[in-house]
Amino acid sequence: MALILVVEDEADIRDDIEDTLKFGGHQTVSAANGRQGLERVIDSHPDLILSDINMPEMDGGQFLEAVRAQASEIANTPFVFLSAYAEREAVIEGKKRGADDYITKPIDHELLIETVNARLRQVRRLDQQKREELDALRRAVLETFPHELRTPLNSIIGFAELLAGEPTAQLGQATVRNYSRHILESGRRLHDLVEKVLDLVAVTSGRLVPKEREVELEPLLRSIVELQATVAARSGLVVGFQISPRMARIRTDEVFLRRAVGELVSNGIKFSDTDGRVSIAADIDAGGVPFISVSDTGVGMSEEATRRLGSLFFQENSGLSRRHEGLGIGLSVARAFIETLGGRVEVQSVVRAGTTARILLSPDCLIA
Known about the structure:
By secondary structure, this protein is of the alpha/beta class.
C-alpha cells in the first residue's frame, strides 16, 4: 500500500481519482492546487504525486519545480501529470522539467491504477539497486580502502619523518625538494581518492540532485582538457576534442557532466602509453541518441574485464602487483553521475589497442 497525493482543482474529478486509488489498495491525500499540494508533500511525504496542470494559485508546472527544489527525499518523488490532450505541449515541457509520466483526461481508471503501480514498482527497483550499490560500496571500502589510504599516507609520513629527522642544510636543497614533491603528490592523490568516494556516496544515495540548464559543450570540454594538460604532457600524450554543431548546446547538469567526462578523460590518460592520444567527441548517433565519447590508444582491457566494469572499484589487474594505483573508482563515479541524468555509459575495449567509453545521453537534452 502506497500513499498517493492527488492535486486537482475540480473536486468531483479529485474525488473520483481518490476512490479509484483506494479501490486499487492505496491510501490518498489531496489538494486543490499546487500551493496546497506542496504543503501536503512536505507534511506527508507521499510515495507518488498525481497533479493536474492547469490550476489556480500555483499550476502544475510551478508545483513540479517547487517539489524538485526540495530536499532530496522529496525531490525524487515520482510525479505524474493529469492532462487533457490539448495540453500536449505543456506535458512535453513538464517532462523536460522532471515529470515522470502523464495520464490524459478523462481518466481511464484501469490505466490510472496500472500507471501508478508501474511507477511504484520502478521506484522499488531503483531503491533496491541503490541498496545493492551502497552495499557494494561498503564492501569495497572495507576490503580495498585501507590499502589505498595507507599507501599515500605511508609516503607522506615517511618523507616527512626524513625531513624532520635531519637538518635541512645536511640533506641539501635537491633532496628536500625531492622529498617535498613526494609528499605533495601523495597528498594530492589522497585528496582525490577521498573526493571520489564522497562524490560516489553522495550521488548513489540521492543526496546530489541534478539541476539542469543550457550548457555550451565547447568551453566545458576545453576546460577539462586544459585541467588534464599537465598530466598528459608528462607522458607525451595529446588530448583533443571535436564537437558536432548539433551538440554545441545541450540541456543538462553541468557539474554532473563535467565530473563524468573528467573521470573518463583521466582514465584515458592514466591507461595510455607514452606518445598516445586521448580523443573526445560529441555528436548524435544514427539512432538519434546524443553521445560524448572518450577514446584512448592505451593498454585496453580483456573482454571479461569489460563485462565486469560495472563493479565498484574493479580493476583488471587487482592486488598489490597491479600496474596503476587507485581504487578503480573513476568509471563508477562517471556512471553514477550519468545515470542520475537519465543516461548510461558503455565501454568497448581491445587489449593493446585502446578503450572507448561512450556517454549516451537522453534525447531530451537536445536543444532545437
